């Protein structure tokens, strides 16, 4: 059986670090192939048999798979079922930059040395949320901005869903904390702030602070502020809402504090950030 080899230059285009597209049916999926770039694919409907490295890896709605350049794979139907999935491709250089950025948290060998590609199953709400985010990025006409958002998403996905593949029992994030982090990424929760985090966790403020410092090397307040800043920078770049309206919508009631945190994080004022990224 002939194995096709896709290259980043031909698949994504020259001078492009990432590429996003939807495969609406297995009828449009590629035959057996490998490539010189990385790929994440999210199953958004149905199910299939993912044939990879001479093994079968069943996938269904909500499955997120991390494909390495050396993987050889294709898809087969599972009975009468069809499958829809979203592909996000990244060049080797982009992935190496991300691994370098995450070097204190992720050892790439744990993701690259396994026989089968790392796989995780997202909760239904996270699958919908990720699909919606990808659809919004797809609509952004500014390619550098879209690439930046895809790179930021890659960092988030590796930390939230693939870091667990290399954690030991001693330093593993407990399931209740993973669930809490996912819930706090909803706008209605991070806008409410730490009070809402305490309510959702069912833990005392002191215990939650200790867990955050030990396992996440941050505090609940810093974590929430980062979620708010991520939301604010996205709204600045993609909407015409006023800067004050965005700050309030993100949960920042103190505008001076918002400006201070934003400039510390991005090196620019919100107005300057919008000017550059619009």
Question: What are the SSEs and their pairings?
Answer:
Layout: E1 4-6, H1 8-11, E2 18-23, E3 33-35, E4 38-52, E5 55-60, E6 63-67, E7 73-77, E8 83-90, H2 92-101, H3 108-112, E9 119-121, H4 124-138, H5 143-162, H6 175-184, H7 187-190, H8 194-201, H9 205-216, H10 220-238, H11 243-250, H12 255-266, H13 270-277
Helix pairs in contact: 6-8, 10-11
Task: Give a written overview of the molecule.
It is a single chain. This protein is of the alpha+beta class. It folds into 2 domains: 4-137, Jelly Rolls, CATH 2.60.120; 175-277, Arc Repressor Mutant, subunit A. The protein contains 13 helices and 9 strands. The protein has helices spanning 8-11, 92-101, 108-112, 124-138, 143-162, 175-184, 187-190, 194-201, 205-216, 220-238, 243-250, 255-266, 270-277; strands spanning 4-6, 18-23, 33-35, 38-52, 55-60, 63-67, 73-77, 83-90, 119-121. The strands form 2 sheets. Strands 2, 4, 5, 6, 7, 8 and 9 form a 7-stranded antiparallel sheet that branches. Strands 1-3 form a two-stranded parallel ribbon. A hairpin with a 2-residue loop joins strand 4 (38-52) and strand 5. It is globular, with a radius of gyration of 20 Å. It starts with a strand and ends with a helix. Mean pLDDT is 89; it is low at 167-171.
**Strand segment tally:** 9
Largest sheet: 7 strands, antiparallel
Rounded mean pLDDT is 89
Q: What is the fold named in CATH at topology level of the largest domain?
A: Jelly Rolls
How far is the first residue's CA from the last residue's CA? 48 Å
| Rg measurement, Å | 20 Å
What is the share of helical residues?
Answer: 40-55%
Strand residue percentage: 15-25%
The CATH superfamily name of the largest domain is Regulatory protein AraC
Multimeric state: single chain
CATH architecture of the largest domain: Sandwich
SS-derived structural category: alpha+beta
What pattern of helices and strands is seen along the backbone?
EHEEEEEEEHHEHHHHHHHHHH
Give the class-level CATH name of the largest domain.
Mainly Beta
Overall geometric form: globular
Number of helices: 13
Contiguous uncertain segments of 5+ residues: 167-171
User: Structurally, how many domains make up the residues?
Assistant: 2
